[in-house]
Amino acid sequence: MAEQIQTRASGASLNEQARQEHQLGVGISQSSTSATANTTAGSKTSNPKPRSIVWDHFTKLSLEQTKGEEKAKCHHCKSEFLCNSSSHGTNGMLKHLKRRHKWIFVEKNQSLIGVTEGEEGPGGRKTTVSISYNTEEIRKMLAIFVIEDEMPFSVVEGHGFRQFVNRLEPRFTVPSRRTITRDCYQLFLDEKCKLKEFLKKSCVRACLTTDCWTSIQNISYMCLTTHFIDENWRLQKRILNFSQIDNHKGETIGKEIDRCLREWGIENVFTITVDNASSNDVAISYLRRKLKNWNGLVCEGEYMHMRCAAHILNLIVNDGLKDLNPSIVSIRNAIRYVRSSPQRLQKFKQAAHAEKISSGASLCFDVPTRWNSTYTMLEHAIPFQKAFERLEDEDEGYVTWFKDDRQPSSLDWDNARAFVQFLKLFYEVTLALSGSLHVTANCAFDEIQTINELLVKWSENEVDCVLGTMACNMRNKFDKYWGKIENINPLIYIGIVLDPRYKLEYVNFICDANYEIGTATLLKKKIANTLW
Question: Which domain of life is it from (predicted)?
Answer without folding.
Answer: Eukaryota
